[in-house]
TrEMBL record, chain A:
Domain of life of the native organism: Bacteria
Protein name as it appears in the record: TonB-dependent receptor
Keyword Ubl conjugation among UniProt keywords: no
Organism: Marivirga aurantiaca
Pfam families, A to Z: CarbopepD_reg_2, Plug
Keyword Signal attributed: no
InterPro entries hit by this protein: CarboxyPept-like_regulatory, Plug_dom, Plug_dom_sf
SUPFAM superfamilies: Carboxypeptidase regulatory domain-like, Porins
Keyword terms of this UniProt record: Receptor
Lineage: Bacteria, Pseudomonadati, Bacteroidota, Cytophagia, Cytophagales
The TonB-dependent receptor plug domain, residue ranges: 136-214
UniProtKB/TrEMBL annotation, chain B:
Domain of life the protein comes from: Bacteria
Signal peptide region: 1-20
Keyword field contains Signal: yes
Protein name: Uncharacterized protein
InterPro entries according to UniProt: TPR-like_helical_dom_sf (IPR011990)
Record keywords: Signal
SUPFAM superfamilies reported for this sequence: TPR-like
Length: 716, 217
C-alpha cells in the first residue's frame, strides 16, 4: 500500500511541476539560420521544427536530465544534455554540414559520365542509342563528346591526339581484349557489344583513377545492368540482319540469352557501294548473361559472348589498274567474365572478378596466309574502406596474363610471346567538406616479359562554388606497353609514357549543362621504328610529343519544349614523333578543330522522336611524297549530317530509320600513294574514302511480354 | 489482494506501452495526422514529417510513423518549386523512411505503394529523361503492392494514373486506366466502410480517384 501511495505521489508531483520551455536558434556553420530542423527531447513526442528564421520553441512535461536532439537532412545530428526543471532554457546551436554523397562535389576533370544518377552526368544511357550518327554503337555516341576525334576510316575511339590503342575498355571493371571487330585496312569497325547490356558508362579523356592503367589517353568503363525488370522476348528485324533475345527474371536472379545474325549482302546489292566487296561483311553472335543476388547487398554476374564474322574485299592499289588485291578476313572471338560486388562489415565493400578474351584472325592477303591470336586473362580484386563519411580508401590488386601469336601459315613461320603483369593500386578520397575534395592515388605495375617495374602517381582536387559551378584539376602519369604486334617483334620493349594535366569547369543546373576543359598531355618513350608498319625494324622507345588544347560542351533540354540538344567543340593541338616518322608531326588521326551538334526532338502527335547529328573537323593530315616533309598536307574538311526517326506506333513496337551522311558528302580521310613514281616522275595518289556515300538503316523491334508496355527503345 | 490487483494493473500498463494501443502513441499520431491533413506548403509538410520522425524515433516497433513521415516528404517534393535538386532530396529522404520501415517490419502493400509514389515523384521531376527507364520501375512497385493486397485502393489508383500516362503517350484509349480508377473508387468506399475516421491506418488517396474519374468523363 505504501508503494502505491508513493507512486501516486510521484505522478502528481510530476504533474505539479510546470512545463519546461525550451527555445533557441539553429544556424549553420556560416551563421545562416536553418529552417525545418527537427528539434526534440529524445524518446518523447515533445519537439518542434525550426521556423524560417531558425528559431524554435516548445515545452515539455519531462523532468530531470534529458537529451535534446537536433537533426536535419544534410547536417550532422547533434545531441545536447539538458536539465528540465521548469525554468525556461535557451540553446543556440550551430549544426555542422555532413558529407552527403548526393550533393557533395565530384571530380569532373577528364570524366564524363553516362548514367541515371543525378550527378556530374553529361549523357543518359538512352543517348547512346538515340544519337543518329552512332548507329547503335556505344563508341559512336561517345564520338560526339568533347576530347574525341572522328576517324571515319577506322571507327574506334581516338582521344586527344592519342591513337586508338591508347583507350582501354572495361566491362564491370574488367578489361576487354579486342573490343572492336577485326576489319580490313580503312574499313571502319564497331564495338562488339550491344548497348542494351549497359546501364551506364564512365568515359574519361584523361587524368583518371589509379584503378585503371595500361592506357595512355583514355579509359571507358561500361557498367552492365543488374537484374532486368521482367520476363520478355525481344525480336529485331533489321535491313542488315535480325536477332532474338529472351530474358527470364526470378526473385533473386535472372538469365538473358540472345543470338543475332547479320549479313550486308542484300543491302549492299541494293545500295551502290564505293568499296569493292567480294563477300559483304557477315557474321553471328550469341551471348548469355546471368545474375544472382548474393545476400542483401551483393550480386554475382556472369557473361559469355561468342561471335564469328568474315568479309572479303578487293582493295585497289594506287597507280595500279584493276581491282587490286583481295583481302579475306575471318574473325572468331570469345569474351567471358564473372564479377561480384558485396558490402562487408565495418564499412568495407568488395568488388572483383575474372575476364578472358580470345581473338583469332585468319587473314588472306594476296598470297599470304596470316593467322594471329590474342589472349588476355584479367583477374582483379578491390576493397574499399569508408573510414568516415569524409575519408575513404580504395585498394586493389590485379594481374594480366596476355599471349599473342602470329603465324605465316604458307611459310610455316610463327612467333609469339607470353607476358604476366602484376599491378597494385591504392587511392584515397578526402572530403574537407561538401565543397572540396582531394583524391590521391598510386598505381604500380610489373611486367615479367621485360622485367620492368613502374609506379604512376595520380592526383585530383575539386571545388564546388556556392553558385552551383565547380572547378577540378587532375594530374597523373600513365604507362602502357606497346601493341602486341610490336612486342612480338621485340620482347624487350618497355612502357610508353604520358603525363596529363587537366583543368575543368563544370556547371549543371535546371536541365542545362556546361563543361569546359583545358589539357596538356606530354608523351615520352613513344615507340618508333624503321621501315613499313607491317614489317617494322629497329624498334625503339625514343619518340615523344605533346597534345594540348581545350574543349567545350553545352547541353540543354529546357529551352525548347520536347527538344534536347548538345554542342561540342574540341581543339587538339598535337605533335609527336612516333611510329615510322622521322620528325615530330601532327598525326593523321588528330584533326585540330573538331565539333558536333546533336538534336533530338519528340513529336507527341506523331509518336516519334526525330534526331539529327552533325559532326565536322578541319581535315586529316597526310604525307604527300611529291613534296618534301612528313604530314605535309591536309584533306578537306570532314562533315557528316545524320538523321534518324524512331516511331512508336504501339508501346511494344518501335520502327527505327536512320541515315548517315544524308548530304552524300564525299569525305576523304587521307591519301595512299604508290611506292614507285609514274612516268611523270610523281607518286600516284588515291583518296581513302567512305565505304558508301550513305548508310541507311531500317529496323523493327518488337517486345513480347505479359506487360504490353515494355519496349526496346534501349536496343536501337 | 489489493497489492496483487496493483501488480496486475501495472503489468497490464506495461503491456500497453509496448502495444499499438498505447494511448500516448495514438494521440501523437492523431495530432500529426491532423497536421498532415491541413498541410499546404513544402514547409508544412516538412514540419509534419519531422513530427512523424519524432514518433518513429520513440516507437521503433511501429512502421506507420515512418510511413507517414515518408508520405509527408513525398508531398513536400510534389509541392516544391525549388527545382529538381530539392525535389530529389525530398524523395530520397522519403525512400529512406520506407526502406527503414521495410527493413524493420518487412514489406507490405502500403509501404510498397508509398515507395512507388516517391519514385513517381522522381519520374515527374524530369519526365523527359527519366520517363523511359523509370516508368517500368514505378509500375513494378505498384504491381508488387497489388499482388500483396489486390484490394489496396491507393496502389490501384496510382497504377491507374501510370496507365493513363502511358495511354496518353502512346495515343491509346483511356478505358483500361479509367476502369482501374473506378475500381479504386469502390475499394476506397469499401475501406471507408470498414474503418473509422479515428483510425491511424492509411485511408488517404480518395481525392486522387475522384479527380481521375472526373478526367475520364
Amino acid at each position: 500500500m505504501k508503494t502505491f501511495i508513493t507512486f501516486v505521489l510521484m505522478i502528481s508531483a510530476s504533474v505539479g511541476i510546470a512545463q519546461t520551455e525550451i527555445k533557441g536558434i539553429v544556424k549553420d556553420s556560416k551563421g545562416e539560420p536553418l529552417p525545418g530542423v527537427n528539434v526534440f527531447i529524445q524518446n518523447t513526442y515533445d519537439g518542434t521544427s525550426t521556423k524560417p528564421d531558425g528559431s524554435f520553441s516548445f515545452s515539455s512535461d519531462e523532468t530531470g536530465d534529458q537529451i535534446l536532439i537536433l537533426q536535419s537532412v544534410g547536417f550532422k545530428k547533434q545531441e545536447l544534455s539538458v536539465q528540465l526543471t521548469g525554468e525556461p532554457i535557451e540553446n543556440n546551436v550551430t549544426l555542422k554540414e555532413s558529407i552527403d554523397q548526393l550533393n557533395a562535389v565530384t571530380i569532373t576533370a577528364g570524366a564524363m559520365e553516362a548514367s541515371d544518377e543525378n550527378k556530374a552526368v553529361v549523357l543518359k544511357p538512352l543517348d547512346i542509342v538515340t544519337t543518329p550518327s552512332a548507329m547503335g554503337d556505344v563508341v559512336g555516341a561517345l564520338q560526339t563528346l568533347p576530347g574525341t576525334s572522328t576517324v571515319g576510316n577506322d571507327g574506334r575511339l581516338f582521344v586527344r591526339g592519342g591513337d586508338a590503342s591508347e583507350t582501354a575498355i572495361f566491362i564491370d571493371g574488367l578489361k576487354v581484349g579486342n573490343a572492336f571487330g577485326t576489319t580490313a585496312n580503312n574499313v571502319p569497325t564497331r564495338t562488339r557489344f550491344n548497348p542494351n547490356l549497359f546501364k551506364g558508362s564512365f568515359f574519361s579523356t584523361g587524368g583518371y583513377s589509379a584503378e585503371y592503367g595500361q592506357a595512355l589517353s583514355s579509359a571507358l568503363v561500361l557498367n552492365t545492368v543488374d537484374i532486368p525488370v521482367r520476363n520478355q522476348g525481344d525480336i529485331s528485324l533489321m535491313s542488315v540482319g535480325g536477332g532474338y533475345a529472351q530474358t527470364l527474371v526470378g526473385e533473386k536472379n535472372s538469365l538473358t540469352a540472345s543470338a543475332n545474325y547479320f549479313d550486308l549482302t542484300p543491302y549492299q546489292s541494293l545500295v551502290k557501294q564505293n568499296f569493292d566487296w567480294e563477300r559483304s561483311p557477315h557474321g553471328w553472335d550469341a551471348s548469355i548473361s546471368a545474375r544472382q543476388k548474393w545476400g542483401n547487398s551483393g550480386m554475382v554476374k556472369a557473361y559469355l559472348h561468342k561471335e564469328s564474322s568474315g568479309m572479303e574485299i578487293w582493295q585497289a592499289e594506287p597507280g595500279v589498274d584493276g581491282k587490286g588485291s583481295l583481302v579475306k578476313i575471318k574473325n572468331d572471338y570469345t569474351y567471358a567474365q564473372s564479377s561480384f560486388k558485396q558490402i562487408g562489415k565495418n564499412d568495407w565493400s568488395y568488388t572483383g572478378g575474372l575476364s578472358y578474351s580470345l581473338n583469332k584472325d585468319q587473314i588472306k592477303l594476296g598470297g599470304l596466309d596470316i593467322v594471329q591470336q590474342t589472349e588476355l586473362f584479367h583477374a582483379k580484386g578491390v576493397a574499399v574502406k569508408d573510414f568516415s563519411p569524409a575519408f575513404s580508401t580504395k585498394m586493389g590488386v590485379e594481374t594480366y596474363w596476355s599471349g599473342y601469336e602470329q603465324s605465316l601459315v604458307s611459310e610455316d613461320l610463327s612467333r609469339n610471346f607470353m607476358d604476366q603483369q602484376y599491378n597494385a593500386f591504392i587511392e584515397s578520397d578526402y572530403y574537407v567538406n561538401n565543397q572540396l575534395i582531394f583524391r590521391g592515388g598510386l598505381r604500380s605495375g610489373y611486367s615479367k616479359l621485360n622485367d620492368e617495374l613502374w609506379i604512376d602517381p595520380r592526383a585530383s582536387v575539386s571545388y564546388k562554388f556556392r553558385s552551383d559551378g565547380q572547378i577540378s584539376f587532375a594530374y597523373g602519369t600513365f604507362s602502357q606497353l606497346p601493341e602486341e604486334r610490336f612486342r612480338v617483334v621485340d620482347n624487350e620493349l618497355g612502357n610508353t609514357k604520358a603525363t596529363h594535366w587537366i583543368l575543368n569547369y563544370f556547371h549543371s543546373k535546371n536541365g542545362r549543362t556546361f563543361r569546359a576543359e583545358a589539357f596538356y598531355k606530354g608523351y615520352d618513350q613513344l615507340l618508333t621504328f624503321e621501315g613499313d608498319v607491317q614489317f617494322p625494324e629497329q624498334l625503339r622507345l625514343d619518340g615523344n610529343g605533346v597534345a594540348k588544347g581545350m574543349d567545350f560542351f553545352f547541353r540543354d533540354n529546357k529551352t525548347f519544349k520536347n527538344t534536347d540538344f548538345w554542342i561540342t567543340y574540341s581543339l587538339v593541338d598535337s605533335e609527336r614523333k612516333f611510329g615510322g616518322y622521322q620528325t615530330s608531326v601532327q598525326p593523321g588521326f588528330a584533326p585540330l578543330h573538331n565539333g558536333s551538334v546533336v538534336v533530338k526532338h519528340f513529336i507527341s502527335p506523331l509518336k516519334s522522336q526525330i534526331g539529327m547529328s552533325f559532326s565536322m573537323n578541319d581535315g586529316y593530315t597526310y604525307t604527300n611524297p611529291n613534296i618534301p616533309g612528313e604530314q605535309n598536307s591536309k584533306t578537306k574538311s570532314y562533315q557528316d549530317l545524320s538523321l534518324s526517326w524512331s516511331y512508336l506506333p504501339k508501346p511494344n513496337l518501335i520502327i527505327h530509320l536512320a541515315c548517315s551522311n544524308v548530304l552524300g558528302r564525299n569525305n576523304v580521310f587521307g591519301y595512299q600513294y604508290a611506292s614507285e613514281t609514274n612516268d611523270n616522275n610523281l607518286f600516284t595518289g588515291m583518296p581513302i574514302q567512305q565505304g558508301a556515300p550513305r548508310f541507311l538503316f531500317l529496323g523493327v523491334f518488337l517486345t513480347l511480354s505479359s506487360d504490353k508496355k515494355a519496349n526496346q527503345l534501349n536496343n536501337l | 489482494m489489493k497489492k496483487y490487483t496493483l501488480i496486475f494493473a501495472l503489468f497490464l500498463f506495461g503491456i500497453c506501452t509496448s502495444n499499438a494501443n498505447d494511448p500516448a502513441y495514438i494521440k501523437a499520431m492523431a495530432k500529426q495526422l491532423e497536421a498532415l491533413e491541413k498541410a499546404q506548403t513544402t514547409t508544412d509538410f516538412q514540419e509534419v514529417a519531422n513530427g512523424f520522425n519524432r514518433i518513429a524515433e520513440k516507437n521503433s516497433e511501429e512502421w506507420l510513423a515512418d510511413y507517414y513521415a515518408g508520405l509527408a516528404l513525398v508531398n513536400a517534393g510534389f509541392r516544391s518549386q525549388e527545382g529538381i535538386k530539392e525535389k530529389d532530396a525530398f524523395y530520397h529522404e522519403a525512400k529512406n523512411h520506407v526502406e527503414k520501415a521495410i527493413k524493420a517490419h518487412g514489406e507490405n502493400a502500403e509501404l510498397l505503394t508509398l515507395k512507388g509514389y516517391a519514385l513517381m515523384g522522381e519520374l515527374s521531376a524530369d519526365p523527359g529523361s527519366r520517363g523511359q527507364h523509370m516508368s517500368s520501375v514505378v509500375m513494378g512497385a505498384f504491381g508488387k503492392a497489388l499482388s500483396m493486397d489486390p484490394e489496396n485502393p491507393r496502389a490501384m489508383v496510382m497504377m491507374a494514373q501510370m496507365e493513363l500516362g502511358m495511354a496518353q503517350f502512346f495515343g491509346q484509349g483511356p478505358e483500361k486506366a479509367c476502369g482501374m480508377a473506378q475500381k479504386s473508387m469502390q475499394l476506397f468506399e469499401k475501406e471507408a466502410a470498414k474503418t473509422s475516421e479515428k483510425d491511424i491506418s492509411p485511408r488517404w488517396g480518395k481525392d486522387m480517384a475522384e479527380q481521375m474519374i472526373t478526367q475520364c468523363k
